[in-house]
Give the backbone structure.
Amino acid sequence: MVKGIQSIAFEQSPYLISSASVVGKKEGEGPLGKMFDMVEEEDLFGENTWEEAESAMQKEACLLAIGKAHLAPEDIRYLFGGDLLRQGVATSLGVEELGIPMFGLFGACSTSGEALALASMSVAAGYGEYMLAVTSSHFGSAEKEFRFPLGYANQRPLSAQWTVTGSGAFLVGKKRSHVRITGVTVGKIVDYGLKDSQNMGACMAPAACDTIIRNLKDFDRVPEDYNRIITGDLGYVGQSILFDLMRGKEYDIKKNHMDCGMTIFDQQLQDTHAGGSGCGCAATTLSAYILPKLERGEWQRVLFVPTGALMSTVSYNEGASVPGIAHGIVLEHC
Amino acid sequence: MDKKKQQQAYENYVKQKTPVHNLPANMAKAFVVGGIICTIGQAILNYCEKMGLSKDISGSWTSMLLVLLSVVLTGFGIYPQIAKWGGAGALVPITGFANSVAAPAIEYKKEGQVMGIGCKIFTIAGPVILYGIFTSWVLGLGYWILKISGIV
Amino acid sequence: MDYINAFWIGGLICAAVQILLDRTKLMPGRVMVLLVCTGAILGAIQIYQPFQEFAGAGASVPLLGFGNLLWKGVKEAVDKEGFIGIFLGGFKASAVGISAALVFSYLASLIFDPKMKK
């Protein structure tokens, strides 16, 4: 089971049984618009605050994913979830009513990878039949916490990314489906000392590079063994840097690399600068776009590597750099 | 030392990889937006002085009306669009300051009158007031010292 | 005509600040502080006032003008009241701008709701 230095290869691979994606208006207007399970036109989701809206999205995504497998919340053993907000409050208040024993996580935008890794490890270790992994982000709540109140009139640099309003939930378990999680590479924190909170792609690219190479080495694979190597939200700037960093270590992933942040929005039409970001970016793209391709067999094996920038507003103000982390999930058609 | 050099090298590399806005184009847009706002200010000044108000009071009316304009435009979500296009043209005039007070007030009201609006209304503009008052205080102190020592 | 002066001088100041926004890592908050402090200093060394006579609103509307206003207030208060004027003049001169911003922003919070950016 233990593979190489940071990875696990499951002897009995858990199945990714079902998933659900719930997104906001802008995401619904993007290239993947029709593929999401639910697009909510009103960004408050019928709630009073952005934070409550985010919680509502999480709850909805969880119920949809559980429902697709004809199960109920009582059938879920453990829930692994997280979000970007202080103290993970969107998750706590979002999944509260489901009554599932839960682990609150923080991996910034890599949370979907972290949650999937832990959920699949729990199933493989025999701790339960069904596990739920969920994460979310919301443009309003994230801007308010990390940048500026929405009404503030500022110009965003071209390297800035647009936080996705969306939640993705994934049911992992022993019941057969057409997608298996066959391996996991848990990432370590990689810090190249960058202090630019407006250029997240550049802060996270080193971590993506580190985890991808670690995965390839641990599993004794080459990039071509994957139909796609998919990062979460490096964006246009981060992708370019990733290619350079990988090339420096003699790996070329240009041909089969994909980035959720670049896929979820149309850069030209939607004016999203360097691309989408946020926990919801990778999660909803995985659910709506990537998993269907795996289920159909269009792709046989992919490496899903969401990345996160581990900063807080306090650490940033106090002059700390912005380190990154990336978790690799190997998904296979079966 | 080695690590610092590496980090500096990465920072330089990222700088050249990161696209930047077209500066001349942005400067032109800032010029237009800033110019228009200042012209509106001039119109108010002229009108006040025509009405016989003193220079100082005319200036006060101009400030007050420009602030009002900015707050209304912020409430309707228009001022952020102006800044998206005009950049510094929207930030530099007093209307930018007003927007930086109105935006938090509107956003944080969900957290309550005292803890939300009250505590956070100056979250962006606070430094302007602090350092503005402090600088004028230091300069004033200097001026007073020069005065009593007969230099000024 | 004074409208033309206000337009091109105000515009020029904004265009110059655009360089700071685009080519340095300075955030808008720091830029505003820089403008206010610079305005106060330029006022104290007696450059800003003559500049404002010429440029009208092109000089008074930008935050530099706000800084100059703070300095003028302090100077007048020191001339009139001595030492205590140092504490008196700044807020006195900027009272209208700050009060207006506070009051109108608060009223706006009663009427408007935050809107998602497009």
Q: What stands out?
A: Residues 16-173 of chain A form a domain with the Peroxisomal Thiolase; Chain A, domain 1 fold (CATH 3.40.47.40). Chain A is about 35% helix and 25% strand.
